[in-house]
Amino acid sequence: YPSLKDREVVFADFHTPKKRGIVSRGIIYINSNLYKKDPDFLRSTIVHEIEHLKQDIKGIKKVDDEVIRDAKSKFMKDFAGEREVGARARQNKFLESVGRGKDRVKD
User: Is the pLDDT reported for residue 79 higher than 70?
Assistant: First the structure.
């Protein structure tokens, strides 16, 4: 995925402890307040969001944000299987590689 080397990573205060990172219009946004003291988890979140960029390149469909807000648990169960589970698996693999397997992201 050579095009990923030119992607921008932006650190911003999301004003919530629940959202770690997002990809929007090809830019990775990271919740800066969550990672001040934990560089491994910061890197694992970047790995997670890069996986979503790869999914975009592969053409794996996304769901509209309204659908996610209106039925998040159903979304996570029914649709996110391919995108979110794949990204979380990559994130967990990274955490294990840096000796942080105990901090695995829940599926």
Answer: no
Q: How far is CA 9 from CA 6, 26, 59, 100, in A?
A: 10, 9, 21, 23
The count of other CB atoms within 10 Å of the CB of residue 79 is: 16
CB-side exposure of 16: number of CA atoms within 13 Å? 6
Q: Quickly tell me which residue has 């039925």 as its tokens.
A: 71
Q: Please state the pTM of the whole predicted model.
A: 0.66
**Which of 57, 82, 63, 60 is closest to 7 using CA atoms?**
57
Strand partners, 30: 11, 21
DSSP 77-103: HHTHHHHHHHHHHHHHHHHHHTT-GGG
